[in-house]
Predict the 3D structure of the following.
Amino acid sequence: MSKRNIPQRRPTTPPRSQRSQVDQALAAGDVAQAAQLAERELAAGRPDPLVLNLAAWRKEEAGEFAAAHALLARALAISPGDVAILGSIGAVLRKQGFLGEALTVLDQVVAAEPRHAAAWLERGYVLDAQRDDAAATASYARALAIDPTLSPALGKLSDAAARRGDADAAQGFAQQALALNPHEPSAVFALALLAVEARDGARAEALLRPLLETRLALDDRTRSLTLLGDALDRLDRPSDAFAAYRAAKATFRDAYRTLLAPTAERPSHRAFIDAIRAQVAATGPVAALPPAEPVAGAAATHVFLLGYPRSGTTLIENVLASAPDVVALEERDTLVDIDAALLANDGAMPDLDALDSTLLHDLRTRYWRRVAALAGAPVAGKVLVDMNPFNGIKLPILARLFPTARFVVMRRDPRDVVLSCFRVNFTPGAGAWAFSDLEETALHYDSLMRLTDLTREMLPIATHDVRYDQLVGDFAPTVRALAAFIGLAWTDDFTRFASTARTRGVRTASETQVRKGLYNGGGQWRRYADQLAPVLPILAPWVERFGSGG
């Protein structure tokens, strides 16, 4: 939680008790000391909202989010509607990964107290985690309007500007943030990212090394180490760069071990994929899929764009989004209702066939309603491109629910894909946990490729592969073939995808690459061949099929 969610209460009498020492520590601005003293108060059986809030902050700092949440719930029961406590709950919910719930709580806070700067700041963090950049920027701006000394908000604005390529704005916000806090992490990230983009690895390294000497939240340390890896990559020091990436992933694991590490009750993401593949195999070939009843508001043409993270799905999505009458949804949560059915049935076709047809129609209806809401406009009569690289996991249920949909599968050299997944920061989740270990990344890739291939073999679905190396090397013929598969006529608008990306924004880790325009990012794995050597046998069958040579 932000320390600003804790009231800075001053003692009215000289400190004579442990409780007054808490007040004295707060008055001096030493929240850490106040929290330590508050824990003693709590152990002595003297809880009140402030003591519970401080004790929760200490738990939160230790990464014990569930314990922090429990203490805050006790505080809220004593002081219902307390905006300081609710703001702290919103922060803990975010760190637990409950982004929707966090946003609901924080919206409640700013509605009750519109001048709660810390809540607007925390709300921006949540929206950032949801990759809603425009809304996050607006929330940070509201926080700054209330408290212009909020260096984290300025830092976040600088980071967002750097990621969208607005160097002037990024530098301006960063200078303001660093004037308030010379080690404001997001401001340093912004300047380091600009340096990396300018191929000035030395400048980026010089910015990041001092930051790494400071006390950083684990998420910030992860980002610092990742950017340091990028800086060292620019300096043509792949061994040092890989060491930085490995340290970043180890830090990510430290931060999210409790929430994301596989357990007996929480199988790994790969185990989930393997279970679905086993059930598809057990089902055997399906000659025909039952037709789906028409749904009001459905798009005229329905396209799922999948493949694997860092395979080029964001690039091809922006190519398609450049055409008239195409609505593209980039990794939006369109399948939340369908996911529940998938989890309940493990993706097995026999289970799905046993579902009541009324339920299936209801799932389709809810899908198209959600699509229209996320698109901000009706999609009837248009082409919908629903992009998510992980939708290959859901092919069995998507095929059953949308038997006439077209499935576009992006393919790229698996060595570049696996290396890129290991180098990039992803939003915390089961997939991101898999990418925090190089061998697990390779095994995960292998599992999803096997499931995708088996589903295509067993189910009568319309699919089309797009090769990344062919897309960047022979753009027009590759896009013409894709457009013909979808049913689109060629348009020169396809070539303007970089402008499309800048206009509509990019919500994935490919943000900085796609807005540059067409370039061949393939073959980067060669400089890291020694580091990738342990996983190359896992990737060998896929390299033979999708490798770009070398």
Summary: Residues 171 and 483 are 40 Å apart (CA to CA). The radius of gyration is 25 Å.
